[in-house]
Write a structure and sequence with these properties.
Layout lengths: L2 E6 L7 H14 L3 E5 L3 H5 L3 E4 L26 H13 L4 E6 L1 H13 L4 E6 L15 H22 L1 E7 L6 H10 L3 E3 L7 H13 L5 E6 L7 H11 L4 E6 L11 H19 L5 E6 L2 E6 H6 L7 H10 L2
Helix pairs in contact: 1-9, 5-6, 6-11, 7-8
Bound molecules: 6-O-phosphono-beta-D-fructofuranose.
Subcellular location: Cytoplasm
Pathway: Carbohydrate degradation; glycolysis; D-glyceraldehyde 3-phosphate and glycerone phosphate from D-glucose: step 3/4
EC number: 2.7.1.11
């Protein structure tokens, strides 16, 4: 390979910038040219790309978001969109692509790469959702979880001062990873996850017991993708049965995606970016670089997407109720 394009796609995640920096500098170090693509697949279709040099990625390690910008791009799902993207890549002499993103990004990358195998593709898991197989952690998950913890600790202060019950919605359309980690870290009384159905009756029983045990405040974390109808429906259902508490709802929303990447995400981004370029140089394609037992290993994009092993740690799930009595 001689020329690599790099893009970020889907929801942004803290750690994407350190990863872009590592991709650019590792490629340059190895004598390759690098092109930055703006706004993910949209930039491929619209030919919105620029040559990058060592200084293009100066002083970005500490920045949240992504200097390349990102987008969710529907036209790239169509054959026509892919053909236009391919044409633009070929015109520029690009023969390898690093895509940093989550499952939507990888689905696009895999389809594209099967259609146009002469462009090598390497995925980097970048999503706060931590829901890809082949990497114990995805870029941004650590920072996002820390951001959530900081917010919930503050809510706990006021909940405790007022003897209130809070329902807090955290991100994760299909993933309870942030909810579970943040919940354990903040001593949540209950955590509602997409991966594990919690009956409202059980939640009510749990909260009533807490009140009997003289708990001054209670916090229930509800992941976006929980199947009980959303945080407001859960709060309403509980309100009908639990009258000892004043109930409040907080939706943390997109603040969870921003902020300076943690040390963990800066290192992970650097490692994954470095490994992605080295894997391409070694002739790999249609793979994802990931962290497994503190080693960087390759997984096929297919496995990263389809191997839906249950990713939440069993001991964490088990301890939620036990540690919050
Ligand atoms: O995939 C990351 C994520 O932050 C999910 O947790 C969330 O459901 C979704 O993106 C929100 O996407 P958008 O910013 O496009 O509304």
């Amino acid at each position: 390979i001689s020329k690599i394009a790099v893009l970020t796609s889907g929801g942004d995640a803290p750690g994407m910038n350190p990863c872009i920096r590592a991709v650019v500098r590792t490629a340059l170090y190895n004598g390759l040219e690098v092109v930055g693509v703006r706004q993910g697949y949209k930039g491929l279709i619209e030919n919105d790309m620029y040559d990058m040099n060592k200084r293009s990625v100066s002083n970005i390690l500490n920045l949240g978001g992504t200097i390349l910008k990102t987008a969710r791009c529907l036209p790239f799902k169509e054959d026509e969109g892919m053909a236009t993207a391919y044409k633009h890549l070929k015109e520029r002499g690009i023969d390898a692509l690093v895509v940093i993103g989550g499952d939507g990004t990888f689905t696009g990358a895999l389809r594209f790469s099967k259609k146009y195998p002469d462009i090598a593709v390497m995925g980097v898991p970048g999503t706060i959702d931590n829901d890809l197989c082949g990497s114990t952690y995805t870029l941004g998950f650590d920072t996002a979880t820390n951001t959530v913890i900081e917010a919930i600790d503050k809510i706990r202060d006021t909940a405790d001062a007022h003897d209130r019950l809070f329902f807090i919605e955290v991100m994760g359309r299909d993933s309870g990873a942030i909810a579970l980690r943040a919940g354990i870290s903040c001593g949540a009384e209950a955590i509602l996850l997409p991966e594990k159905q919690t009956a409202i009756e059980d939640l009510i029983k749990n909260l009533k017991e807490g009140h009997m045990n003289k708990k001054s405040s209670s916090i229930v974390i509800v992941a976006e993708g929980d199947k009980n109808g959303g945080v407001y429906d859960v709060a309403k259902a509980v309100q009908k049965e639990v009258n000892n508490y004043d109930i409040k709802v907080t939706i943390l929303g997109h603040l969870q995606r921003g902020g300076s990447p943690s040390s963990f995400d800066r290192i992970l981004g650097s490692r994954l970016g470095f490994a992605a370029v080295n894997a391409l140089i070694a002739g790999e394609t249609q793979k994802m670089v990931g962290l497994q037992a503190n080693h960087i290993l390759l997984t096929s994009l297919e496995d990263a997407l389809n191997n839906h092993e249950f990713k939440l740690e069993a001991d964490l799930l088990q301890m939620v109720d036990i540690l919050s009595i």
